[in-house]
Design a protein that fits this description.
heterodimer, A: mainly alpha, MetI-like fold, two-stranded antiparallel sheet, 16 helices, globular, B: mainly alpha, 15 helices, MetI-like (chain B), transport (chain B)
Chain lengths: 303, 298
């Protein structure tokens, strides 16, 4: 009864929320039933409910193959690199940008650093290609000019974790540093004044005032990153690597793997098993790390 | 002795500051070099690229790549698709997200915590590709329609939470005063709250616009008809397709004619990044105000 009373009392507010709520139900909650396919032998003609139940066969198929270890490792390893270097360098940039007094320099630098955030992964891939392509790329032409051998980057799987990390830092440093800067802007100037009176250097002010006061933002961003450590950035990996199977050994992540098994092999059941595995792993990690974060710092958990 | 210590500190301090400028300056430079490289080489002649490779300062310039790219029909139709999807998508998404976020932030709403959790949960536990694909392609039957490119991005929980934390900073008195004057919640939201929320609206609009403009995932999954290919898929085709002339350059081009491969790729890329990058200066002034730290917490 109280539900109806609440809804009628604030009916206009619930009307405002309705489109958003409908969206979540249709586009986020209804597709969850796709996880059922993981336990079935899915045939389009039979539909979701009509398909035959096969228990854990699809999972066995995935875990028996060498793929599961490779894609899980690649996903977590690449995301780990992105998280550490991406957030780390963005934090340093934000702290430094905050110290810059020259207004024009600061604005220009900030605009330049933020620019890569605006372009699509396919454009990024074109830029990477301009640097790395074997015959006419800047890197190889430079190597050649100095008498070194050309390198066929698009066949050398072992260097791609580093290249992808560079690209990630390049693209996202500006975005994350704005989030850090927003937090730094919120710090009261009084802290710095009294520190200056005590004779603290700029470096000391950064270490003893700025970083501790934005710690919760750092932790929250870190947690969001860790929570998604089993989710590869499909746009990034597929945009840059494409269907280049020579690089799969270090760059194939869970998301590109699922995409291939769905779109290329049309294997709904197998992909679905991989997706469910991914979702469950993701949920477990975020719960564990959230608990840890709360232990370290009571207010820093996500929920 | 005392003065010496102080001097040391100030030299250290100075070099620290210089180091900061150098680091930030270099990083900023590295951020725009790839843009420069792509833009400048799109004006380089194909033979110059073939002989000297991609250069920071090419020796021969030519507009041929642009003429060639613009001659085809695909660039126009792709532009239409991308602009339609971006404009319609962004308007709808910002409207729905702001309405929803306002309710999540409203203290009068008893179930706002349940709604928040429902929203947050979708960020942690996803349905994943398969369920999503079946929903769009089979259940809703949106394959090869523009709705498949628009609908899936209409409510991004992360952007919603950015808005929630902005709305929370607004004084509740506005609401009370308006209620006393006889305004209902719809009037309050559309006539009072939205107009004073420009910073966050601008920020979130930019995020949505970027997402729609740059997306190729949805088109890759759901669009097979090349009349409905957005710009990003056009780039992908041009990068991966050996036979570019069948896709751009118009049908009048015969295969024997030399196709400016790099040139066309680079020119297309430049044509697609222009419009979206010019958005930034307009929203820059709202930016830091729009993203507040609480945004990150549901």
């Amino acid at each position: 009864m109280s539900f109806i009373r609440e809804v009628t009392k604030n009916k206009f507010l619930y009307i405002l929320a309705l489109p958003g709520l409908m969206f979540l139900i249709v586009f986020a909650y209804v597709p969850l039933n796709g996880h059922l396919i993981a336990f079935k032998k899915y045939r389009l003609a039979d539909g979701l409910w009509g398909s035959k139940f096969v228990g854990f066969d699809n999972f066995k198929f995935f875990f028996m193959s060498a793929d599961w270890y490779k894609v899980t490792f690649n996903t977590a390893f690449l995301n780990g690199l992105f998280l550490v270097f991406g957030l780390g360098i963005a934090l340093v940039l934000a702290l430094f940008l905050n110290e810059i007094r020259h207004a024009l320099f600061k604005r220009l630098a900030q605009s330049f650093i933020f620019m890569p955030y605006f372009i699509s992964w396919l454009v990024v891939s074109m830029m990477a290609f301009a640097f790395l392509n074997t015959t006419d790329g800047v890197v190889n032409r430079t190597l050649e000019a100095y008498g070194a051998e050309r390198i066929n980057w698009y066949l050398k799987a072992e260097v791609w974790p580093a290249i992808l990390t560079l690209i990630y830092v390049w693209k996202f440093a500006g975005y994350y540093s704005i989030i850090f800067l927003a937090a730094i802007t919120g710090i009261s100037g009084e802290f710095y004044e009294s520190a200056r009176i005590d004779g603290a250097t700029r470096f000391q002010q950064i270490i003893h005032i700025t970083i501790p006061l934005i710690r919760s933002v750092i932790i929250v961003l870190g947690l969001l990153g860790i929570g998604r450590i089993f989710y590869g950035d499909f746009g990034m990996i597929y945009g840059i690597i494409g269907d280049n199977s020579a690089l799969y050994s270090t760059t194939d992540v869970i998301d590109t793997y699922t995409y291939r098994s769905l779109r290329v092999l049309s294997d709904f059941s197998k992909s679905s098993a991989v997706v469910l595995y991914q979702s469950v792993m993701g949920l477990i990690t975020i719960v564990i790390f959230n608990l840890l974060a709360k232990k370290i710092d009571k207010d820093s958990g996500l929920f | 002795m005392k003065t010496k210590v102080r001097e040391d500190k100030s030299i250290l301090e100075k070099s620290f500051v210089i180091g900061i400028y150098v680091f930030v300056g270099l990083f900023a430079l590295l951020c725009i070099v790839p843009f420069w490289l792509v833009v400048i080489n799109s004006f380089a002649s194909e033979s110059s690229i073939k002989i000297h490779g991609m250069q920071l300062f090419p020796k021969e310039f030519s507009l041929y790549s642009y003429q060639y790219t613009m001659a085809g029909k695909q660039i126009l139709s792709s532009y239409m698709v991308t602009i339609t999807v971006t404009v319609v998508g962004t308007c709808l998404a910002v409207l729905i997200t702001s309405m929803y976020a306002y309710v999540l932030a409203h203290p009068k709403v008893k179930y706002r915590n349940i709604l928040s959790f429902m929203t947050y949960f979708t960020m942690v536990f996803g349905a994943g590709l398969v369920g999503f694909y079946i929903l769009i392609a089979n259940t809703l039957g949106l394959k090869d329609t523009l709705w498949a490119l628009i609908l899936p991005y209409m409510l991004n929980p992360f952007f919603a939470f950015i808005m929630v934390s902005f709305f929370r900073t607004m004084p509740y008195e506005i609401n009370e005063a308006a209620t006393i004057d006889g305004a209902n919640d719809l009037t309050i939201f559309f006539r009072i709250i939205l107009p004073i929320s420009k910073p966050v609206i601008a920020t979130v609009s930019l995020f949505y616009a970027l997402q729609y403009w740059n997306d190729f995932y949805l088109a890759l999954l759901f669009i097979d008809n090349h009349n409905l290919h957005p710009l990003q898929i056009m780039i992908r085709q041009i990068i991966s397709n050996v036979n570019i002339s069948s896709y751009v350059g118009g049908s009048q081009t015969s295969y024997s004619q030399a196709v400016p491969t790099y040139g066309v790729q680079l020119a297309t890329v430049c044509l697609t990044i222009g419009p979206i990058i010019f958005l930034y200066p307009f929203v820059q002034k709202f930016f830091v105000k729009g993203i507040t730290i609480g945004a990150l917490k549901g």
